[in-house]
Design brief:
Chains A, B: Keywords: ATP-binding, Nucleotide-binding. Chains A, B: Residues 3-137 form the Saccharopine dehydrogenase NADP binding domain. Chains A, B: Pfam families: Sacchrp_dh_C, Sacchrp_dh_NADP. The structure is a homodimer. The first copy, chain A, is an alpha/beta fold. Helices cover 34% and strands 27% of the residues of chain A. Chain A folds into two domains: 2-138, 3-Layer(aba) Sandwich (Rossmann fold); 147-350 and 397-403, 2-Layer Sandwich (Dihydrodipicolinate Reductase, domain 2). In chain A, strands 7, 10, 11, 12, 13, 14, 18, 19 and 21 form a nine-stranded mixed sheet that branches. Chain A has a seven-stranded parallel sheet with strand order 3-2-1-4-5-6-20, with helices on both faces. The first copy, chain A, has a three-stranded antiparallel sheet with strand order 9-8-17, with no helix packed on it. The A-B interface holds A 185, 263, 266-267, 270-271, 273-276, 278, 282-285, 287-291, 293-295, 297-299 and B 185, 263, 266-267, 270-271, 273-276, 278, 282-285, 287-291, 293-295, 297-299.
Chain lengths: 406, 406
């Protein structure tokens, strides 16, 4: 297996650090628009080479694939570049893995009730082409989407006879402090992307209605996260799981709720009220800037906050329905990473590290032919057991928590 | 009386429109950094001439005073320029009126308990100079500060034998809509200045403690405003009344609470949490901008929202203590302006119109020698009755509401 890693940012850098400890591949070309960043990430393993890439150009992706005899393209750039990377891989005859799907466009008239172009629609539109060519695009293979989808497959195959809801629930108790030890507001993930996903209309799937949307921040709910994280206010957010799970796993309803917490929700609403979420440039005292870029610029860079962060992050899937014994069951399958551990062990903060480990495992399963297939497939299209076993073998076990089904 | 009006923005423009109907002056020089704006405001009256001025330069103010034989300088620019306009007037031997006092600087170590440089300190430091020269600087002569301070004098002279608290309370039920009739977030006053005054530590005066500060947004209270405005959440805000009233009116406590409403408070807190209130420039994709300027730039210009605004604004003073009969008394003296009326009658939105009418009245009282004095004086240093009578004569009556003193 010869991998082209597109993007050496937070998640790409953590991917390189995790893969360096495994022996399932021969070479990884670490490629970034910023060659220096690619070189720094590539320096840690003799099987790595650095390259410059323009992820907005499918031809640039294809050319690099040909140059290095790439078998698998690992997309670790912003999802705005998904389509050129996806198409560049196909043109090169390589398989493809990403951690987020092609972007959505809200419905022009009724954005808060009806879907427009959905997450992944542009990729699924090319499904037959990939299948006919015998090539695999494994989409949404991070932690969420990704591990959450693996949990859905596992729940359907081993824990439930009938599934009511597949509810992805994400929460954390991360705290970032400044040099004086005072708590500061510093999101652990790209603020630009967080605004994008949180202010887009959330999507829900129901067996009778299919996919539909709601206004942002709908259906607030306090979810009690395990391993000491505790209760966090969660709201509906547009996310790939809702688009992926119902395609392969039988259920009545699929949702995604993000534990943004009250303060973050309030801040996102305020930014939206003021129009500071806008990406259109405004004129300010002689210069032109996009307000959303200004918001991102005043906050600390998420890639740099690891050493000043404490706490744990939890990704998981809350499944309700009937167990294999036919009795009502409510189960939360989850994966928790402590920032202190990921910083000490890998030098990467827990949120990006937790995202990056999953595509490494998936590529190892594809390299060893434990997973194989053709077409545009989500993680739930494959057997969950070898994936979850490997997650534990990598030193980062997952967990199951039974909840009161009443 | 020959007046130099410095600033032809929202309040300056309304000042010119109100004064045009009065005959107490011979000439007004309408001066602005933007000569076109000065010319537009000056076009409405044959006694007006337009001029260009640099309000950051005391010499520029003095020169214009000499050129036109100015007797009174009316300061209607941002308070950041108060000191050059104040000093330029003194150097020219003119009297001076403003609507906000010189700016404060928070205490470097304990900003939320102790005052640093207080509002007006820089002006009061020159008090003896003005007094010895026999010149008058009438400071804080807008609506708040201004009319509120006149109310304090009136309450002390005519309604109360003993005053417990002089509590300025400002509230409104203004709503701004877009072209489709949807309510939008559009502050009726400069967002830059609103951030400045709301995020500075609020100041309180008590007879035993003197002046002290609290954290922003302290002591939230719902005040029920008259004439259909109704209950609005008010919080402590740094404001000139607290610095002015105790100098001339005997009381136990002086406060200022602004009816920002819950949404506005939440938005200001969010801006502060993110650091978007900062005036220090940040680098954003190759250009440098001040985040606070960006926030102001994305919002509608307050000067333009008049036609799309409905509702009323209320300025007033809540006085508690003992009435002239010695019995407990609680009285709200207030002045309400309906935006529909001010737009129809003057073509100016109610918030700037309500600010501008008060210095016109004050100058008329100075022109007719009903008010006279020397030094740096607040509105409460003068007899309130002729002022309030003239307010009613201008067609904009004030009101008194008795509250339950228990």
């Amino acid at each position: 297996m010869r991998i082209l890693l597109v993007g050496a940012g937070g998640v790409g850098g953590a991917f390189a650090a995790i893969a360096a400890r495994r022996d399932f591949f021969e070479e990884i070309v670490v490629a970034d628009y910023d060659l220096g960043r690619a070189e720094r990430a590539a320096a840690q393993d003799s099987r790595y080479v650095a390259a410059r890439i323009d992820a907005s150009s499918a031809a640039s992706v294809t050319a690099l694939c040909h140059e290095h005899g790439i078998t698998h393209v690992m997309n670790a750039v912003d999802p705005v570049f998904n389509m050129p990377v996806f198409e560049g891989a196909f043109a090169a005859g390589a398989d493809y893995v990403d951690m987020a799907m092609s972007l959505s466009t809200p419905h022009p008239e009724t954005p808060h009730t009806t879907t427009g172009v959905k997450l992944g629609d542009l990729q699924f539109a090319q499904e037959s082409r990939w299948e006919e060519a015998g090539r695999l695009a494994l989409v949404g293979m991070g932690v969420e989407p990704g591990l959450s989808d693996v949990f859905a497959r596992y729940a359907a195959d081993h824990l439930f006879s009938e599934i009511d809801e597949l509810g992805t629930r994400d929460g954390a108790n991360l705290v970032v402090t400044d040099d004086d030890g005072n708590e500061i507001f510093a999101p652990s993930f790209s603020m630009w992307t967080t605004i994008e996903e949180c202010l887009n209309p959330p999507v829900i799937w129901e067996r009778e209605r299919g996919w539909f949307t709601t206004p942002p921040f709908s259906e607030p709910e306090v979810f009690d996260f395990p391993e000491g994280i505790g209760p966090v206010e969660c709201v509906n957010v547009e996310h790939e799981e809702v688009l992926l799970m119902p395609r392969w796993v039988d259920c009545r309803r699929a949702t995604f709720k993000y534990g943004l917490g009250e303060e973050f929700i309030t801040i996102l609403k305020a930014l939206h009220t003021l129009g500071l979420d806008s990406t259109e440039k405004v004129r300010v005292k002689g210069v032109e800037v996009s307000p959303r870029d200004v918001v991102a610029a005043v906050l600390p860079d998420p890639a740099t906050i690891g050493p000043r962060m404490t706490g744990k992050t939890c990704a998981g899937l809350w499944v309700t329905g009937r167990g294999t014994d036919g009795e009502p069951r409510s189960t939360y399958l989850h994966h928790v990473v402590d920032n202190e551990w990921s910083m000490a062990e890998y030098g990467h903060q827990c949120v990006v590290w937790q995202t990056a480990i999953n595509p490494v495992i998936a590529l190892e399963l594809l390299a060893t032919r434990v997973w194989h297939g053709a077409g545009v497939l989500g993680p739930e299209a494959f057997d969950a057991v070898p994936f979850l076993d490997l997650l534990t073998a990598y030193g980062s076990p997952w967990g199951i928590q039974e909840l009161d089904p009443s």
